[in-house]
């Protein structure tokens, strides 16, 4: 990490992959800048922002004062990106990627799209949840859902990775092992998510105004949050059948962090040991997944993964009534966005998957 | 409310019921003192505290500086209580009421017990959840579960009211209407609760130390929280059959507030209109229950009932997969403890049920 | 407080003063609505809002659901106000009162202006701080600075009360006793203020976006906050000479609350006893001021006045280097705005000054 | 940072300095473990804890699950430390170092003491502030005050570094440039500090119980905080004369972060340009100090240095009345404790001063 302050010169350093971040002034863009500042094999050479074009990075991202001294936000210029970069991260609002990705795809760049535009494989599902025909169904097919623990091999060969949503990431991690092993009743899956305020992005809004957002315990999108589509897609693939999920996200009082709580009924023959084995089988060797079972804290809490790409998972089984709860805790901006994107980037580039990402979270945080 | 500062003289003012608070230095005790300072027909004449006996009320309850000028915490003295008071509130740890209530009951005092000791009607259930035989099963029988919206008539004639737990109160309010009307599949009920830090009381502990508790999104007691027993008892009564609930509470980052989210599958024939009618039928005329459907915020958030006895309820129905979510938001220290106790006290005394309790919450808070 | 839910019918109830709130949908307006809902002698009959005209009160003020059932926001109509009301509260942005107050003043209504427009007595000071000539210097003269503990008699006879700013209120309360008694070096006064996010109002902004505002410890307006003008005016009057104040406000992480810390050097002959006497002389008999000296918490913290009109004051003297600190803690929306306005309203109307305002704060809050 | 998970084997890796942390289970100890996990040239081989001896690191430090897999907390054993380590960090309560440091010093180990026990050079000052004679005045003389920006050369040759307190660090950074250049009236210096809850350590206490600590704006130690002694010592050295400081810390609502606000009057001839030059002269080339002047945020806020060793400094000059404010923002656990210790460790070892410490803070955080 030595010398990180000297980086960000606006040109590729020797041996580093030159990359571009489109939409670099928001929270996800800022998080990509933060993570890539610590990445030994990547160098951000273009960071676009419509609003702040011409300003230094630290003008907006106060945390990055002193970093990226040679770089300023610039307007979007696809020719320049094609010319200078090997990979591009899109940290743009949903819908904007629909226009940009096809153009970028043609140029042969590796693309990591953090929007929702290319996450669903099935164009009909896209239409159901987003209310319009997907204009590029062929690209839907080529895109890989960028959850490395489920799609590592496809990511390796992908040119377009659709980075999962934060709520979806937490939900899938909580449920995947027991859904895959069919240890639970797949017809009565509930996933209740609690998430911090940074999820909604950097643009002020009445619901995220501090006096309204702080102390909130506020359900939202209680009957059709769009991340459900991703969750059902991925869990369905694991189960080998259609899966429907009762899903309610809640805005709670934290800046970062998302916890997914799976509530499920045990299938016949399932018990605590089998549940444990399912989690261990899926996550035991994953460098970024930590199974929480012991210690002073028995279940995952996103508080203890803040700032990192870790996913803490855990579970509880209540024998009395044959049910279980599964938990997954993430930092919504890292594992739920920028970190997961860098992890996929590492895989696409043939790097060690953990490059630039394997440092400990803060505590207390 | 005029002249409230002149109150708290340690003797009954004309026309007011003299009451005692046992365990007055904790959060629940403090909240009883706060609420009763505004009550036109009650006067706290004894406030016991082992730790702070001899100290003025404001020594501990900084909010009450200037109030209760003539009153100091005193050691517990049942004779004095019997002599001076007509009603007694027990704000003591679970287990302590088991010793005190029988003695107090004999004296003929009206008793409002805020502990868990007399909430369960079935001694076997008590044994299952609390790990020992209940020593006074006859008192269990006489005790009334102090949730006025469900047991108003019994409370009117009760001498012993067992005030519900905070998580249980929120859970029951969220689920009661649809359980009673059997609009949901009673075999797959999930209740996911999120609650603030004051729930755990005023005694410092590692888990509630500010650096650990702030920003937490932390599941706890995920496979056997004791409030489940109360919830299943009350929902079972409403349904006229055994009901089991998958229940997980989560510590979230707020001081006050609890939100219960019911996740359920619609029964055959149930739809949004029927769900709405069930809530309206049960709560439409209740002075403390507000059904949230319109406005800038579509679902309940405990943030907007803070400091009061209100319960905000609401729901969402997802037709796509035949499910619903039900919500109830409370202030855990008021509706989840002291306020609900005062509401029951009003009923027991034949007062208007809302006496001293009907003032608006804060916003923002 | 009984029956408060029946209030807010849009017409004056017998014996109550009909009042209007101009700008009723913001935080200060909402707080006026909350406080007046508990006021036995006042009735809000008009609540104006440009943005929400036609909507029920609870549409915006979620805390007030169930209250003011007969009232809706309405557009501003001065004739109607004149016709129906005896007093009017202006909870409008600074500058807007400059246009409204002169018109309202003509009609003979009692006016409580919560903006900054009429707080300064000296038109030159107004020009210096607000950058333009005051268009109504005669009204500046007639306006009374609505800090009852300093201007009670003038308020009694006023038709126009300029309610102090929240930071200024806290600052003046912290410093007034020792400035008046000249116990401190008047040439080196420092007032350092810490304040919660609701101070900035209900309109979303980048600086008050939850992810940016939460956890902030952020100085602002460090060299010319406009409240300095009020503070210097009032302290100057008390001292009988010009007083200049080094003043820096800081945004800290709370929704409500403001603490002013006066840092000062003791004048010759001043000592702890004299400082104590100065506070006691000025505040000892004030119903809303509590001098904090004993108990588990030795200094004021706004946390324990939240929701109320109380001011907790205190101080510390460091003999070693002949200095002192003075503290005043308020709820910025109540004592720093709406509550102080109602207190002045009570005085103007000849009511008991504490009417509708004397109830205990929350703890914990 | 690659391979960090493989570290913590309990033995020195090739080329790394083996170090010990005494008192490794508290917040400061945990922060040392976190930082040293990222340090390329150091390896923690012993981590002592009385309470958790035998437990794995992640049992207590949930953030470090997956790290330090080969290491467990162990009881204190000075022989073993001497045998295995080259440097030792003491993260023990004040007073405990008085016993340990002399023993460790004899062994020739490099010592970084994070307690207050060896910070004051003058034994009389120690007695004044700590109420007893210092038992090792000779070690006071040998100890170097570990603020690298002021004492870099002495640290290079030190065997005992006394790491500054968090409030003191922030205070000194805010004031040092203008005190050194005598741009302010040295007889009227005020430093007002605001600090998060982690400052008080990991041990639960009534004042840091979440419901009491959250939302607090609470002055404490308002007339004799012990960090004043350090601040006056260091500012006095810079000024070449005795300096006294009016100092009040305030507990505000954040977990991490401390902001010091210097309030001062300008000396004759001082102006904004000279103040700016003083800050630039002292900090312009420091790798960990960032001078904040431009961008969307004009003054330092500890929020934007969280998790790092950075100090953000800034100032404001109010010409009208010849005053200034100076600001320094730090993470109290990093720059106010563990990070500053590692920075000094780097200097003592002849490493690049920034080793393991130069990564960007989080935003939002």
From TrEMBL, chains A, B, C, D:
Catalyzed reactions per annotation: [amino-group carrier protein]-C-terminal-gamma-(L-glutamyl-5-semialdehyde)-L-glutamate + phosphate + NADP(+) = [amino-group carrier protein]-C-terminal-gamma-(5-phospho-L-glutamyl)-L-glutamate + NADPH + H(+); [amino-group carrier protein]-C-terminal-N-(1-carboxy-5-oxopentan-1-yl)-L-glutamine + phosphate + NADP(+) = [amino-group carrier protein]-C-terminal-N-(1-carboxy-5-phosphooxy-5-oxopentan-1-yl)-L-glutamine + NADPH + H(+)
EC number(s) on file: 1.2.1.103, 1.2.1.106
CDD domains: AGPR_1_C_LysY (cd23939), AGPR_1_N (cd17895)
Pathway: Amino-acid biosynthesis; L-arginine biosynthesis; Amino-acid biosynthesis; L-lysine biosynthesis via AAA pathway; L-lysine from L-alpha-aminoadipate (Thermus route): step 3/5
Organism superkingdom: Archaea
Secretion signal span: none
Entry-linked Pfam families: Semialdhyde_dh (PF01118), Semialdhyde_dhC_1 (PF22698)
Entries under InterPro entries matching the protein: AGPR (IPR050085), AGPR_AS (IPR023013), AGPR_dimerisation_dom (IPR058924), AGPR_type-1 (IPR000706), LysY (IPR037535), NAD(P)-bd_dom_sf (IPR036291), Semialdehyde_DH_NAD-bd (IPR000534)
Keyword rRNA-binding included in the entry's annotation: no
Semialdehyde dehydrogenase NAD-binding domain location: 18-158
One example GO MF annotation: NADP+ binding
Positions annotated to bind NADP(+): 25-28, 332
The entry's keywords: Amino-acid biosynthesis, Arginine biosynthesis, Cytoplasm, Lysine biosynthesis, NADP, Oxidoreductase
Gene Ontology BP, a term: L-arginine biosynthetic process via ornithine
List of catalytic residues: 166
Compartments, as annotated in UniProt: Cytoplasm
Similarity comment: Belongs to the NAGSA dehydrogenase family. Type 1 subfamily. LysY sub-subfamily.
NCBIfam families: argC
PANTHER family per record: [LYSW]-L-2-AMINOADIPATE_[LYSW]-L-GLUTAMATE PHOSPHATE REDUCTASE-RELATED (PTHR32338:SF11), N-ACETYL-GAMMA-GLUTAMYL-PHOSPHATE REDUCTASE, CHLOROPLASTIC-RELATED-RELATED (PTHR32338)
Name of the protein in its database record: Putative [LysW]-L-2-aminoadipate/[LysW]-L-glutamate phosphate reductase
Species in which this protein is naturally found: Pyrolobus fumarii (strain DSM 11204 / 1A)
Encoding gene (name): lysY
